[in-house]
Amino acid sequence: MYTIPFTHINWDAVEKTHHPGETGESYWQTLNFDGLRIRIVECSAGYLADHWCQKGHIVHCLEGSFTSELENGEQVSLSKGMTYVVSDQLSSHRSISAEKVKLLIIDGDFLKPELKQQKSADEH
To answer: Taking CA atoms, which of 19, 69, 92, 110 is between 20 and 30 Å from 49?
Structure first.
């Protein structure tokens, strides 16, 4: 169970960290709570993630557009106002952006399948 007090976020005051991609680069502004991570991620035009990710996320496109490529070859394009959601270990994916894109990404323990299974077992 999460216990997060009322918290407002001034993203202008959150430090940006640099993360190079296979091509292009991204900048993350990250807030960490116990078992929860909230980020604003800005990717440059021509960005290709340098790894396949199996972590679960809620990804909401704030500006621009990007493609989430799945390791099985499927591609899903998202633009401003669109969101995708996936739990941990349910896909291997990476981001590609032809143009600059700004994303809100939320991930954490609540996206771990084993926690859902444990919670169901605890309820019975």
So the answer is: 110
- Which CATH number among 3.40.50.300, 2.60.120.10, 3.30.1050.10, 3.40.630.10 corresponds to the domain 15-123? 2.60.120.10
pLDDT in tens, 45-81: 999 999 998 888 999 999 999 999 998 999 999 999 9
pLDDT tens digits, 2-46: 677 888 999 999 999 999 999 999 999 999 988 899 999 999 999
Dist. CA 77–CA 5, nearest whole Å = 35
Gap between the terminal Cα atoms of the chain: 18
Burial 3-31, CB ≥16 within 10 A → b, else e? eeeeeeeeeeeeeeeeeebeebebebbee
Contacts of residue 5, defined as CB under 8 A and 6 or more positions apart, other chains included, come to none
